[in-house]
Amino acid sequence: MLPQKYLMYISQNYSYAMLRPIQSVILARGGSVKWFLEGKEVSEKYLLSDEIQLNTVEKVNQWGADFVLVPGNVVPSFIKGIKVGLFHGFNSGKRGNDAHFKIRQCFDMYCTQGPNTTQRFLKLAEQYQTFTVKETGWAMLDPLFTAVEVNPHRIQGNNRPTILLCSTFSAETSYADELFPTVKQLSQSTEYRWLVQFHPKMPVDIVEKYKSIQNENLKFVETDDVIPLLQAADVMICDTSSIMTMFLLQKKPVIAYKNKTTNDSFIHIDNVNDLDQTIEQALNSSEKLLNKIDLYCSQTHPYSDGESSRRVVEACEQLKKEGVENIKPKPLNLIRQLKLRKKLKYWKI
Hints:
By secondary structure, the protein is of the alpha/beta class. The chain has eleven helices and twelve strands. The relative contact order is 0.16.
């Protein structure tokens, strides 16, 4: 097959890290990659010096990508190319159990993360017949399973356990503010080293509170790539977010504070006063808990070979080879497409 053109279509800064492992595979196979940044929540400052941005839909369509890779929920039908949904996270249950599986009729193929995602999407594919499904693993996690010599969040010679505190931004599921006094108190002790990282949409006042308590034991981190943080920590504390699954896939324990799911591979607590002793429990996880984590990982993302990006690219190439003629035409989605045209200021037919 001739080298293919891939458009990386992103709307959030964290999507850079999701697509770069795939970009590396594409370039190694002789393909070409360009980027399109949609909306005000993604910044071009995170583009690398050798990454090319197409800043209008006209330029995108003139280039004519073979594939449009999207780590989000929607993509315009008026952009050329086979549309591939890659997901921006795991099914956290944050917006209801079925939100992860909502079909918006934007994609020709979904690259699923593991059996418990694939099984649902295969049933949906049979129901709608407007897309195909290929289980590849989640490409963003390839670097998670690749050892690195230098991690900016590890301190050489420091053997203290590292605790990673994360939180989502939505008011109904975020407990960062509630945890603040206890984290502040615990971070005065030298027993643990704390790393704090929040969703980019976290309210500024909460971010500033945590920044204000930084010391030799606690560091607040702002980054577009959470993988090094996940690798550096021994335990995660979080409320309800798909980043918990990412951490768990390393076979490391997660303390879930007032979590909205019934995931029994988490250590669930609802009382902030239990946090200190629960950290100790997590650092000395029981065999029973570790077995539950193993089972959860096998169903959610059984790939630890760092090769999910290759599987995504191969799935794209196979779909192009087989053709998309067997996929039924999608509904017009007039309202959504009009909103996207207005947002992107594109009115050509």
